[in-house]
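Hi! If you just cloned this repository, the fastest way to understand the data is to look at a raw example. We've pasted two of them here, unedited. The first protein comes first, obviously.
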Amino acid sequence: MHSTPSTGGDKDPSGSGSPHCTRTLIHPGKETLLWYDPWLINGPIAQSGLLIADALGRHAFERVEHILLDGQRWVNRTHDPALDDRWEEIQATKIHSRIQEDLVVWAPTSSGKFSLKSAWDVVRGGCERKEWYNLVWFPHSQPRFSFVCWVALWGRLPTRSLLARWGTVIDPTCYLCGNAVETTDHLLFECDFSSAVWREVLSLNGFNRNPLGTWKDVVEWLVSHFNGGSLLGSVRKFSFISSVYRLWQERNARAHLKRPTINCDGSVKGGFGGYGAIGRNYRGEPVFALAGGIQESDVVCMELHAIRSGLQRARVFNLSQVQVRSDSQVAIQMVVGTYKVPCGVLWLVEEICELRDSFRSCTFIHHVREINCCADYLAGYTSVAQIIHFDLHNLPLILSEMIQNDAKGKVYSRM
């Protein structure tokens, strides 16, 4: 059995610092190369600078059995100085009489069996566990949340300030607020958008306080307050890593998509139907807002009217890429073709599909009602058969406040 040395495990005495991950258990030594295999604890005998040549009595394919007498004890028959230099180590090497042939084992584990965890530990080397380790890695966490949070805590998120230093972007302005340089500290804590998120997260976890002064201060405080293995401790830690992940996800959505969104909603009250739609750019600023009403008692029909009107208005503003959001899962499924369309609204769905095909990119997603408040407000705005296109400089005060809250990342509780 010919095994070659590899990284990990016991250190290489040659001074290279390269460790060996495999070791060979000897008996009877017929399968292991004397000079090249890592059968000694400090690695192969043939270290850097040692010449292996037949003229010196050192045969490249010589086996360990050459220095074993009757498979029971070590003997240096040739008194080779290279063997003499390692003789104490050779004599200290156990001869495993209970095994039938030489056996290669994985040195970093006590069982001798290979595992990815032990290989990773060898590759990364020893280091102190960070004080925030249990805040990020804990049972029942979501791996992708933990990973993004781990990268953030190491300061390795590719923010615009970091990308600017690398020369890949020119403008380092924060995607979430547009008011400051996008560093990790700013993006995840100092930004108005993320600060509003953290205030809500702290409040939902029972801490009625404003966030601390810096991202480092926040993490230190969280380590001492979001701890323990209880259900409450796990929920608090999960709220932290999920918030970091969602902030980064929102940042990336604005950075890479930059597509306007159209929030749509429909409602029926007393046999009269209302619908509303609001289009916003990636910063959350309104592009258009409309409200309408017709004599109709089918709420799904009104949801479809809202989607159609929103897409029609988007075409007026020459938007080429949009994402349509509705709190009606049935309406979304009808449009994307996963729900059978009733005859009464077939014409509406067909018109929506025609409008969809006129955009370079048009996607439809379902949003829960609690985060669709602007469109919900517009759907109940009028009680007469009409359509209103709002002046963005003279919006109703309540609607303006809702738009500002959404742009700042307000968290809405699910009813």
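Ok, and the second one:
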Amino acid sequence: MTFIIIFIWTLAAFAQECRGQITVTQSPSITAEQPGGTVNIKCKTSRDVRRLNNGDEELPPPKNLNFLWETPFRLSLTWEKPEDLDSDCKVNYIVHVYKSQNCSYKGDPNKKSYRVSHLSHKVNVANKNGLCISVSTNPENCGDRGHSRLTTIILPPPGN
């Protein structure tokens, strides 16, 4: 029983130390068991917590990625700042433009990447074979937080 109480207090202390004030809720809130018995505790966090392979917490992704063709060869991209971003966390964004509808080929020689500090970017590009555009939130000064998952849009070629 003492171990369980220490475990719960440890979880509570950890939740208060996390950036973004993540709340951990235990179900059931109180439980008792004889020494040597088994106790099952379920915990739920107040928001999605993702960890990267190295243990760092992932930043939230950009929201509402949109595009506008200003000319047949000039694409304007805009997005919104991610939710749940700490006020002391400084970020930039990585924009990837693939000259195809396939976003998964990492060694693609037709992929262009841009690092930007604002919520928009203009790209000079032709849309012959379709495009895959992705944007991620990238940490500048966010403690041990890592880059976000990609927010992606796929543009078919003209006439499709």
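That's it. A detail worth noticing about the second one: Residues 3-21, 50-55 have pLDDT under 50 and may be disordered.
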